[in-house]
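QA checklist item 7 of 12: single-chain prediction sanity check.
[x] sequence parsed
[x] length recorded as 795
[x] structure emitted
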Amino acid sequence: MRIALTHNLKITGSAEEAEFDSPETIAAIAGALERAGHEVERIEVSGPASRVLARLEALQPDLIFNTAEGHKGKTREAFYPSLFDELGIPYTGSDAYTLNVALDKSLTKRVLASYGVATPRARLVNRTTLDSGALDDVSFPVIVKPNFEGSSKGIFREWSVCEDAHHLAEVVERQLARFEAGLLVEHYIAGIDVACAFVDGLKEANGARSSGTGIPEGVLTPIEFVIDPQVPGSYNVYDFNLKHAKPEQVTRRPAQLPAATIERIRAITARVVRALDLKDHARCEFRVTPSASRSQGHDVHFLEVDGLPTLQPGASVFVAAAQRGVDFDGVIRAIVRSACKRRGLLPLLESNQPRRAKRTALRVGFTYNMKRSDTAAADKAGPGAMHDLEAEFDSPRTIQAITSAIESYGHTVVPLEATPDLPRALAASGVDVVFNIAEGLRGRGREAQVPALCELLGIPYSGSDATTLSLALDKGLTKQILRAAGIETAEWQVVTTGREKLKPFRYPVIVKPNAEGTSKGITSASVVKDEAAARAAAKQLVDRYHQPALIEEYITGREFTVGLLGERRPKVLPPMEVVFVDPPAYPVYGYDEKQSDTPRVRFECPAQLTPSELRRVEKVVRDTFAALACRDVARVDLRMAKDGRVYVIEINPLPGLTPDFSDLCVIAKVAGMDYRMLIGEILAGCLKRYRDARAAAAPRPAFTAAPPAAGAAAFTASAAGAAAFTASAAGAAAFTASAAAAAAPSASAAGASPAADPGLLAAPGPALAGPAPLPAEPAPLSDTVSVASGEVAGP
């Protein structure tokens, strides 16, 4: 089966990411699915929902294995299942309604009370109820928890349990400032924490059914959490720090309780599962305490249920499954089987045959400029030679890596080096789309040359359009746009000779070529302290690069680079800080530092930023991306001054993609994307534009009407006239297409093939205007497949 693994990836380890999955957990789940024979595509859902939607529509998986927790709000866990339902794609786990109820601790208690499930007394407290006396008549001790959080967020052994009204008021005030949606003030019950997992249909390893009359076999052995006695604290609370910072201080073991108590816990878990209609897998949490009314008995108090429990290796569900002889892979397979059984997909699961017809590949043109010179050859040329002529070009290794990544999605890659022969080669190639990394050969509009050519030929391509690439390469024009958009950028001036009257800069300043990338022409000597030195540096760059120079005020502070993926609402990747080692007075991340590993700089990703600093950085890079109308991919370089102001140095909408070396590739790896996934993300926008264009060009259903009345004859005649005009236009188009075919017969021979996968499938339909010949007449309606059917895809 083709399975999409949707998840939120834990990157920083902050409390905000407490419910997210670590890279190790996602790798373990993906590995288990792959070992079961499935094709797995990991989809990290952080960022705009539109990006997730496009990926799923493109991939058209047979099943979604969902662990995504969502980001914000009281309904966050329900968001993605709602989206999956709207798309009509089956998924593992409970539906949106159940996840909404389960996340709301107070509501869950009220629902389960009607099913006879014993739970400690509690009340929901928010600003409104607080003003109405919500804390009156509280019976102490109580424990204060965020009502809409999991993973013990906001729960601490040191102060979450309150013994008097004064302490309670302090804790509630502190926590409401952070968890505004509301708190649960619950009567604290001394005892031990026990979790009971449910994995629908999980059998013993030998296939035998588990014991327990009337209890579903998927209700596993209860697991007890034993906290190291050396951990300080007056109360036995399994808090946030123990779950996330010091997990080694907690032991998970089968509950050491009487058999009757074990069966009561399992029976209550089964009742909760039925009451809330939980699907596939879930986990109930209890407090168990010696009973005051029963001889050697125990009272079992339900605390909460997790409809989207962690699948981290070593979690309680796997400890319980091990009691049945079932390993990690067996649990993951059981979850998939349960979902397939509910959704009628068992024949597909058991047959190991793809549900949809085999997809044919797209022809992806790959435009690039190859780096052929090397440092040794440049050194032989002497000190007067320019050693950075091909600095922006890509090595054969990078070109091969990108080619392999695109081919891994099932496409055919057509290499197209961006030489003066490219117009002819591209027109003759018969490609469906173009993956573009070409930097161009000359001129300040060189990066726009390939996109402009693709637009002329009507071929969708990856990355920003020609206008954006032209503007972004010109640092002076970029700064004008940023300043007009209200985005901070250092004061600057573009000079063409070095003899112009200069602004009254605050020195030092840094002098750069105005239209170069890869920090060409930038070294530590580029920072100068007075006007005379600035003029000399500018004149030197003008003479060397035959273009204007940019003089801008040097911003002292921390330097960051941030990657973005997407279009109108891009996903912001974790910021990476460029840390200067033993820096001079005015450190620079220059050309030499970007060309090879150097001890002068090291990188920290994710950068150590406070939440407010991170929000400022993310806002600045999003605004910059939007101001320049970037799409698919970009990287923004920033400086954060000592006063916290964030300045944009420049934006690169055509960033380097050297595996394991380029900044964007390093950042993407931290964000949980391997190289293949990064290339697929960049390609996804291009493929969406390809599908949209084909859908727009698809023939409309014919409408057959009754013969017109006499009064409608004039209207009919007018329509016929319009049709004749249209036919003439069509004839002209056919003539143009025939001319194109004659000029490039290989294009006709190659043909435009239907789309395939990174999950990329294109619906059959008329070809786009471009180098391939247009069909002589529209395909019949019965031969077309709608986009909604899932037969159009992209990575």
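[x] summary fact logged: The first strand starts at residue 2 and ends at 7.
[ ] second reviewer sign-off
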